[in-house]
Amino acid sequence: MTGNGNFRQFSKKVQKLVKKNVHFTVNMVVNKNNLMVVRETAIKMIGLGVKRFVATPMALNVLYPDFKHFLSVKDIRRVIKDLVWVKKNFGIYIDIMEALPKCVFPKDIRCLGLNFLKRKCQAGITTMAVSTNGDIRPCAHNPQVYGNIFEENLSNVWEKMFDWRNG
């Protein structure tokens, strides 16, 4: 939310939802600009009566890539730790709105059984990533290249990712 008066308007609408006992979730899309205020934002939302707070790392938009504000793995781990802190200190529902690779989660977080840990990554199962130079990977987060769309048939490259579907 940016702009004059947006937070005030948002707050009034949230308070109406809370007053009417409407079940809703507030999602904060996190990028480099707001990475340091996840906890603060959650606390503000809790102050408004929010019971479900989600902080989702900004996804890559291939049409309008914004690498400058994209989070690093270290940044994503900070978001995760901030969410866990919110849960521990306030007891509200927390989540992330997309499946993240399990390797992103610190070891001490993986054992907590949180909702976002239960999501299954679809890399190489129902999805794949094709880079601008044609390299094909199971997902945009994984650096392993299985082939190149400009050099071989897509079906052949898909078959090379067999282990992702049956591993």
Description:
There is one protein chain. By secondary structure, the protein is α/β, with parallel strands linked by helices. It folds into 2 domains: 1-119, no CATH class; 120-167, no CATH class. The protein has helices spanning 6-19, 38-48, 73-90, 107-110, 115-118, 154-160, 162-166, and strands at 26-30, 52-57, 93-95, 129-130, 135-137, 147-148. A 3-stranded parallel beta sheet has the order 1-2-3, covered by helices on one side. A 3-stranded antiparallel beta sheet has the order 4-5-6, with helices on one face. Strand 4 and strand 5 (135-137) form a beta hairpin. Helix 2 packs parallel to helix 3 (73-90).
Number of strands: 6
Q: What is the molecular shape?
A: elongated
Compute the number of structural domains: 2
Q: Give the N-to-C terminal Cα separation.
A: 42 Å
Largest sheet: 3 strands, parallel
Instruction: Please report the number of helical segments.
Output: 7
Q: Indicate the radius of gyration in whole angstroms.
A: 19 Å
Q: Sketch the topology as an H/E string, one letter per element.
A: HEHEHEHHEEEHH
Secondary structure category: alpha/beta
What's the pLDDT, averaged over the residues? 88
Strand order, largest beta sheet:
1-2-3
Low-confidence stretches: none
Query: In percent, how much strand structure appears in the residues?
Result: 5-15%
| Helix fraction bin | 25-40%
